[in-house]
Amino acid sequence: MAPSSALPIGASRVISEMQPVLVDPTQSGSGLLNSVLALLPPKDEKQLDDTAILESDVVVDYIHSTAIDIKAKQMTVLSPAPGALQGRIAIMGTLEWQE
């Protein structure tokens, strides 16, 4: 990606450096297994667009995915805090733990 200084005068970047991508755990190589995920605070999903998710600076908790069962639609996670995770938005970066 070209730096902003290389753009024409008055032009702004249309594509940002970070692009949110919906991860499908059923696809091989999704990278979800053994990943560290950051959980955002619960909000109305209708108000959250891609930009709002990427600009969110408040992370409530981190979880680590240890197993994924596609047939049962379940994911086993390690979390330092108790509570339901259903419906929560999680952000996955490139940090991955290998055994």
UniProtKB/TrEMBL annotation:
GO BP terms? mRNA 3'-end processing
InterPro entries cross-referenced by the UniProt entry: Clp1_C, Clp1_C_sf
Tell me which Pfam families the record gives.
Clp1
Q: Which residues form the Clp1 C-terminal domain?
A: 2-99
Tell me which domain of life the UniProt entry assigns to the organism this sequence originates from: Eukaryota
Q: What is this protein called?
A: Clp1 C-terminal domain-containing protein
- Organism whose genome encodes this protein: Clathrus columnatus
